[in-house]
Amino acid sequence: MDGTDMRSILKCVRCGTCRSVCPVFDVVGWESSSARGRMLVAHGISMGLEADKDVLDCLNMCTTCGLCEQLCPSGAAPPKVIEDTRHQLVLHGKMTDSQKELADRAKELGNPLGEKKERMSWLGDSAKDVREKADYVFFAGCLGSYRYPELTKRTFDILKKFGVTVLQDEVCCGSPLLRTGSDPLELTSKNLEQIKKTGAHTVITGCAGCYTALKNDYPGGLNVIHVTEFLADRLAEMDLKKLDLKVTYHDPCHLGRCNGVFDAPREIIRTVSDLKEMRSSREKARCCGAGGGVLKGYPELSLELSKRRLEEMPEGVDYLVTACPLCRTNLKRGEPKVEVLDIIDLLEMAMEQ
Amino acid sequence: MQNTVLLEKLQEIAGNTRVSTSTANIYCYSCDASQIRGMPDIVIRPDTTEQVSKIVKLAYENDIPVTPRGAGTGLAGGAVPVEGGIVLDMSSMNRILELDLDNLQVVVEPGLIQEKLNARLEPYGFFFPPDPGSSAMCTLGGLIANNGSGMRSVKYGTTRNYVLALEVVLADGTVINTGSKTMKSVAGYSLTDLFVGSEGTLGIITKAILKVRALPGERSVMLASFENPELAGKAVVKVLSSGIIPSACEILDSNIIQAINAYDPGVGLPQAGAILLFEVDGTENSVNEGIRMIEDACRSLAIDIRTAANKEEREEIWAARRLVGAAVSRLDPLRTRVYVGEDIGVPIKEIPRMLHKVREISEEFCLPIMTYGHIGDGNLHTGMCIDMLEDKDWEKLNLAADKIHRTAIAMGGTVTAEHGIGGARAEYLELELGKALDVMIIIKNALDPKGIMNPGKMGV
């Protein structure tokens, strides 16, 4: 464990503030499922505590949503400590089957989903519009490429009008590996090399996981913006009409709380519709339950987290909008009363009118 | 009984999913927010009184220690199983069983979070007044077992003042009910009062009937700044003897002011040697008069007086104040707040002298001591931050804490006004209580002859 992590653990005074906000603790109820518990266990591991299955579950059930860090009075940073502890354990061969599968698939296939088909096939007839050089490059992400290919194509079709290109041979950004303790170096190097080749000064992504990985974990300090940030600055050029719709917005943790992107999605939503906020929003938004490897590793827990987030929806909205395909996927699993849209879907409705 | 047989029996009682011997849980239930440590053998999250009774009976028959735990936010090790055995995590018994507001009372289970009770009461215009800094996470059972209080105790008193009746599981598993639903009762010894503040050493609280109060129509918060804490202490004595009873009267020294501003820059407290935060509640007229009387009492001693502009500003100040105990850790990246010697109480007249003594102790040990707390009832929290990797710092910390405790006792005060004795302060009980401690031991032996109820706590 590095010195920074030990200092962070020592900052925790075990006051329990995190118990009152940790969404996983709210569902599971055992002390080991709270941020405070995980900090204790991480400390224990640094002192020689044997990492058995229970210990691995304790650490891996965290979605790394960061609400604990946001509200921690004493300034501890549990998500970083948890990720680093996962990494230390993985280095010693201690990981769950789910962690191993994520890492193996990503390294072997370039995506953690186990998809073997051509990644860039989402481009369809837009393949001809891919430029070798551009100032901006759109990073589609694994979920974008394989689970939401039509949305991804439509997003690119909007972006290409502004001179944006894509990578020719994109692979997973490395986020699932980074969050679950594996080494993403092969993937990040491959993407980074291609990004450099395009000459782009900025990477655009529509996924919160890709956003935080590209921005905070790639070497050299990439300039990364979310697709909503890019488009919020260009709304005047898009001939949009206001829709007679009320929508609510789910802040993806790794976009909002972890990186401060709160306003751009809201600006787009308010331009084309009426926004009614969820019970918790912005810095204090509750997690959808998918991140940190939890959807893959603990699907039942993840589903319950989704349902509890959905309980925070306001009445009388037509859609639940979000800005991350992973959040969207898990929120859909929770079976909300209304359809879950990506913010680009909403924007397109306003363009089509 | 063999461990595996015992485990099976416990699983039979509470259900498999409510009994844990996992490495992670054993580790996580080995401490609270104090420096006391002890590993449990088994952790159980019971769901009903019947389960608690059966578990305790089984523990009694097998001489197994039982340590009840709420949210584990305690600062004295009360919930730490220092002799191993079973930890009963009561936090899933968290239901509000009855809102009986015509009788000004509620019936609750012990695992209910304080703030959740108040959120439920607010729409009806009622509240449960004991208001600790940990109200967002602490359980009512923990509050009752420690007789906790908080910022509004200067006017509203401690948890004890709000407990009408209890359901308690005794050491042999017997379930008793103490007190009554009436506002007054003198039928027999006040066993309710015996269990309030007994820290799980006499029985396990499984249900409580609590008094609630009507929410005041108006509140106002006033901040008075002083050159030093001693002058603030003098102002408190003057305010309280002027006849006004504020609903809160808190002191913040200069380091605490800095810590609050660091945690929430929006609060923007003025820098001063000390600030007194006064809150007055009641009707519009009584609040205005109360604020005016406090201003009059403080004027000759304070360097600045101002009133919070609106409800938002008032709530932001209180929210930051609630968490400042931990937030002082933010002042130095290498130092962490350690809860030792942090909860003394002195008679109101002695407040300025105690504040002066704290300053002397701080200088003697070259250890910054940050003072805050419910000065209106003589309860001072002395916050010490150390580099936890430095043995020297630990030594200084413990020496300073010891001196703070002994100084408080010498002034006719107490080593703990609201956090409890637990395993952290038991050594001072004889000095503070004298022969009364012998009576406590007699009571303990009568109710818990095998010594299984939260052993190693409270000096009994």
UniProtKB/TrEMBL annotation, chain A:
Molecular functions per Gene Ontology: 4 iron, 4 sulfur cluster binding; metal ion binding; oxidoreductase activity
Domain of life according to the entry: Archaea
Gene3D superfamilies named in the record: Alpha-helical ferredoxin
Pfam families noted in UniProt: CCG (PF02754), Fer4_8 (PF13183)
Regions annotated as coiled coil: none
Annotated keywords: 4Fe-4S, Iron, Iron-sulfur, Metal-binding, Oxidoreductase
Xref: InterPro entries: 4Fe4S_Fe-S-bd, 4Fe4S_Fe_S_CS, Cys_rich_dom, HdrC_iron-sulfur_subunit, Helical_ferredxn
Residue ranges constituting the 4Fe-4S ferredoxin-type domain according to the UniProt record: 3-33, 52-82
GO cellular component, as recorded: plasma membrane
Family the entry assigns: Belongs to the HdrC family.
The protein's name in its UniProt record: (Fe-S)-binding protein
Organism: Methanolobus halotolerans
UniProtKB/TrEMBL annotation, chain B:
One Gene Ontology MF term: oxidoreductase activity
Oxidoreductase keyword on record: yes
Occurrences of domain FAD-binding PCMH-type (ranges): 36-215
SUPFAM superfamilies recorded: FAD-binding/transporter-associated domain-like, FAD-linked oxidases, C-terminal domain
Record's protein name: FAD-binding protein
Source organism of this protein record: Methanolobus halotolerans
Lineage: Archaea, Methanobacteriati, Methanobacteriota, Stenosarchaea group, Methanomicrobia
Cofactor: FAD
InterPro entries linked to this entry: FAD-bd_oxidored_4_C, FAD-bd_PCMH, FAD-bd_PCMH-like_sf, FAD-bd_PCMH_sub2, FAD-linked_Oxase-like_C, FAD-linked_OxidoTrans_Type4, Oxid_FAD_bind_N, Vanillyl_alc_oxidase_C-sub2
Entry keyword set: FAD, Flavoprotein, Oxidoreductase
Entry similarity comment: Belongs to the FAD-binding oxidoreductase/transferase type 4 family.
Keyword Flavoprotein applies: yes
